[in-house]
Design a protein that fits this description.
Largest sheet: 5 strands, mixed
Distance between the termini: 39 Å
Shape: globular
Structural class: alpha/beta
Strand content: 15-25%
CATH superfamily of the largest domain: Periplasmic binding protein-like II
Helix content: 25-40%
Bound molecules: ligand PBG
CATH architecture of the largest domain: 3-Layer(aba) Sandwich
CATH class of the largest domain: Alpha Beta
Strand order of the largest sheet: 2-1-3-10-4
């Protein structure tokens, strides 16, 4: 077994490489002598940089090529930001491990202002996330939201070049890349409910690779796993895979789960929110029942309108 080399398929953005190296190092630390190497790849999501993700086919763009590599046995595992992992997996592949969550919050980043509430009237804020756009606009209808794509470094560069007064990024990505000091405000969930799985890293592999799945168990973080399961169950019940204005965020305290959900129109005019509290064993049921409450409370109409402007997943 120790002669075998396990290959991690990874994108080449600094954040993707950080996450792949993190899993590589944790696997080698948990299993001394194990050989793990990276297989860097380019995905469609890395090539199409000038179009909002929602218009070019959604987040799946970042994972399809990595999945093909595993199915064709050119790689054994892939490391994903859970936020970018679609609901469904190709036959034969699955998500087997979720690592401990980093800061799940959205980060307000600016060279001029310390928080969203400090922004002057009509300030320009960069984000391509419909979820962030919705919540920003609901709180501050005067703000002008402009598209912002590219990896974390590219986005910060555009802010520094003066294209925006502020941008919103995931705190987790900034922290992992050592850019903590760029965060002016870690936005509380009450101001910006995070995306499903935000801040968590997940590992996908072939479901018949029992040897690898056993090795990966050492990296699973049970509390993160249960929170992300609740969030993903809500998301699964709500949608079909495109980029959507959905927030879903669970926290666990003494085995009690608190799940909050949000579906909104991109312009922030409509927002449906709800929550569930219950024992951790019911994570997935809570996600499903919250989704159904949101759907009946107006999310069905909001999502229909959003999907009409997008290609199918
Ligand atoms: N959509 C891109 C993406 N996917 C994961 C992260 C950050 C890290 C994470 O949430 O785990 C980011 C960047 C961002 O939203 O700022």
């Amino acid at each position: 077994m120790l002669n075998k080399i396990f290959r991690i398929a990874t994108r080449q953005s600094p954040l993707a490489l950080w996450q792949a190296q993190y899993v590589q190092q944790r696997l080698m630390a948990a299993h001394p002598g194990l050989q793990v190497e990276l297989v860097p790849m380019v995905t469609k999501g890395d090539i199409i940089l000038d179009t909002p993700l929602a218009k070019v086919g959604g987040k799946g763009l970042f994972v399809k090529e990595l999945e093909l590599a595993m199915l064709e046995n050119r790689a054994d595992l892939a490391v994903h930001s859970m936020k970018d992992v679609p609901v469904d997996f190709p036959e034969g592949l699955g998500l087997v491990t979720i690592c401990e969550r980093e800061d799940p919050r959205d980060a307000f980043v600016s060279n001029l202002y310390n928080s969203i509430d400090e922004l002057p009237q009509g300030a320009i804020v960069g984000t391509s996330s419909l979820r962030r756009q919705c919540q920003l606009s609901a709180r501050r209808p005067d703000l002008i939201i402009r598209s912002l794509r590219g990896n974390v470094g590219t986005r910060l560069g555009k802010l520094d070049a003066g294209e925006y007064d502020a941008i919103i990024l995931a705190a987790a990505g900034l922290k992992r890349l050592g850019l903590n000091d760029r965060i002016r405000q870690a936005m509380p969930a009450e101001i910006s409910l995070p995306a499903v799985g935000q801040g968590a890293v997940g590992i996908e592999c072939r479901l018949d690779d029992h040897e690898l799945m056993t090795l990966l168990q050492a990296l699973n973080h049970a509390d993160t796993d249960v929170c992300v399961r609740a969030e993903r169950a809500m998301n699964t019940r709500l949608e079909g895979g495109c980029q959507v204005p959905i927030g879903s965020f669970a926290v666990l305290t003494d085995d009690q789960l608190w799940l909050r959900g949000l579906v909104g129109s991109p312009d922030g005019h409509h927002m449906v929110v709800g929550e569930r509290r219950g024992p951790r064993e019911q994570a997935e049921q809570m996600g499903i029942s919250l989704a159904e409450e949101l759907l009946d409370g107006g999310a069905r109409d909001i999502l229909r309108d959003v999907y009409q402007g997008q290609p199918p997943a």
